[in-house]
Amino acid sequence: MAGIFQRSLRLRTALRHLSPQSPQSPLSWTVTGRHTPLDLHCSFLPSTSRQFAVCSRKLHTGADRPSPAAAPDRLPFSRITQEDLAFFRKILPGRAVTDPDLLESSNVDWLKSVKGESEFTSFHLKIYFLVVIIFNSSILTSSAGSRGNTGLVGGSVPVYDEIILSTALMNNILTFDSISGILTCQAGCVLENLSLYLEDREYIMPLDLGAKGSCHIGGNVATNAGGLRLLRYGSLRGTVLGLEVVLADGRVLDCLATLRKDNTGYDLKQLFIGSEGTLGVITSVSILCPRKPKSVNVVFLGCETFEQLLKTFQLSRGMLGEILSAFEFLDSECMRLLNTHLKLRNPISDCPFYVVIETSGSDSTHDGEKLHNFLEEAMTSSLVTDGTVATEDSKIKALWSMRERVTEALTHDGFTYKYDISLPVERIYQLVTDMREHLGNRAKSVVGYGHVGDGNLHLNVTSPAKDPALLAAIEPFVYEWTASCNGSISAEHGLGLKKRNYIYYSKPSQAVALMGNIKAMLDPKGILNPYKTLPDDLK
Ligand SMILES: O=C(O)CC[C@@H](O)C(=O)O
Ligand SMILES: [Zn+2]
């Protein structure tokens, strides 16, 4: 009883802080795009073309199910020779990299779950053109089409000996219009650097991710990354206004428009958003940025049941309205991992579920009043049992880290099987409960967290080491469960290498076949990020 009293006292104290008064080659040519001295990096040399056949719908179940991380056999691409390397080094001194240490980190994703054997990485787009035009038979795994190795589905790493093309040196901001809020920049700009640039000008990026310190905007766009602000600002499919893309045959497609409205025919840029580098190399991006909110509040709340959490979500939508900018959750298992592995202390008392709510608005008094009323209602109707509020930057960051660092905590718990599922929001936690029951004591931890506001669950299962038997118990169970609710097996992480063969759980065969036709048209030799996104049976 005393505990409950203290808890509500804490929330009431927090509410008081929110009182309306408180503020709160031998060639010497250079290829350039319209806006961009094209300056990337790449890898190589196939000899045959790929055909993309139409196939019928097939749900992978049981014995015919390929292992998610398994790659098909190496396609008959040419292998890079010492002569090729010498040639590239001569024409691009310092930009053609074969340093084993650098290659080591470029060949493996940050989860250390997919490892390629590329022997060559380049920081110059000329190599790309050389490979395409001179050898006319190249293959590349493009960091431009990934997230600087911060991806979670093995989309950004080579599978075999593909040349790695990096956009890291293409990191210039090209233009920023302070009236419209439209930013154009090169693909290798780090998301956090763009955010800092914009904040100085009273704007923000419309997306925010845990990996912001290292991921590139080109990769964000290529994977259609979702993140923590999607609830408020929508997906990159809405905020990206234009792209410059280098196609598989070396042509530069200039769709770098900076217009809010443009209904002149097909919206080609959409093909490249979310294509994971399989249709072209994104070299520049224009993006619509929101104004920097003048007042930001973050609350961390505890709920006894997921049903109460959903009611809290409904209440927040009704009472916070236009200032609601994020509604995220984590379960008590996530909290245990944060405590154990990262020594992060729970800012409130122990609860089965935790919620991070962010409000962003233009008037701290108005926002504070709204938040105050919402919290009072949530508490008096017993939807939340405990909570704390932050208005200062350092506390806001601390509360956000309870949600943002779950992925990191999981990496310390053991080998992690990751699922990124879209479902009708009222079903999202049922999958976690069913998975726990289904796996019994075969898993070390089964945790659920994610973006409630977007109906996006991150279901993660850990085991002390890689465990094929555990994997066989998780899949196809998780995919069948998802398909039975008409959900998506990849809400925001993409398909990459790991999930490509499960696409049929979320897309009809006609749609997949059409994707194959588009791939065949734009990249007839299949040189762009091979073995990714499209299922093996589309070869
Ligand atoms: O690690 C994961 O499964 C999710 C990562 C990311 O999408 C997040 O929302 O934190
Ligand atoms: Zn996420």
From TrEMBL:
<keyword id="KW-0285">Flavoprotein</keyword>
<dbReference type="InterPro" id="IPR036318">
    <property type="entry name" value="FAD-bd_PCMH-like_sf"/>
</dbReference>
<dbReference type="InterPro" id="IPR016166">
    <property type="entry name" value="FAD-bd_PCMH"/>
</dbReference>
<dbReference type="Pfam" id="PF02913">
    <property type="entry name" value="FAD-oxidase_C"/>
</dbReference>
<dbReference type="InterPro" id="IPR016164">
    <property type="entry name" value="FAD-linked_Oxase-like_C"/>
</dbReference>
<dbReference type="InterPro" id="IPR006094">
    <property type="entry name" value="Oxid_FAD_bind_N"/>
</dbReference>
<comment type="function">
    <text>Catalyzes the oxidation of D-2-hydroxyglutarate (D-2-HG) to alpha-ketoglutarate. Also catalyzes the oxidation of other D-2-hydroxyacids, such as D-malate (D-MAL) and D-lactate (D-LAC). Exhibits high activities towards D-2-HG and D-MAL but a very weak activity towards D-LAC.</text>
</comment>
<dbReference type="InterPro" id="IPR016171">
    <property type="entry name" value="Vanillyl_alc_oxidase_C-sub2"/>
</dbReference>
<keyword id="KW-0560">Oxidoreductase</keyword>
<keyword id="KW-0274">FAD</keyword>
<dbReference type="Pfam" id="PF01565">
    <property type="entry name" value="FAD_binding_4"/>
</dbReference>
<dbReference type="GO" id="GO:0005739">
    <property type="term" value="C:mitochondrion"/>
</dbReference>
<protein>
    <recommendedName>
        <fullName>D-2-hydroxyglutarate dehydrogenase, mitochondrial</fullName>
        <ecNumber>1.1.99.39</ecNumber>
    </recommendedName>
</protein>
<dbReference type="GO" id="GO:0071949">
    <property type="term" value="F:FAD binding"/>
</dbReference>
<dbReference type="InterPro" id="IPR016169">
    <property type="entry name" value="FAD-bd_PCMH_sub2"/>
</dbReference>
<dbReference type="GO" id="GO:0051990">
    <property type="term" value="F:(R)-2-hydroxyglutarate dehydrogenase activity"/>
</dbReference>
<dbReference type="InterPro" id="IPR004113">
    <property type="entry name" value="FAD-bd_oxidored_4_C"/>
</dbReference>
<comment type="similarity">
    <text>Belongs to the FAD-binding oxidoreductase/transferase type 4 family.</text>
</comment>
<dbReference type="InterPro" id="IPR051264">
    <property type="entry name" value="FAD-oxidored/transferase_4"/>
</dbReference>
<feature type="domain" description="FAD-binding PCMH-type">
    <location>
        <begin position="148"/>
        <end position="292"/>
    </location>
</feature>
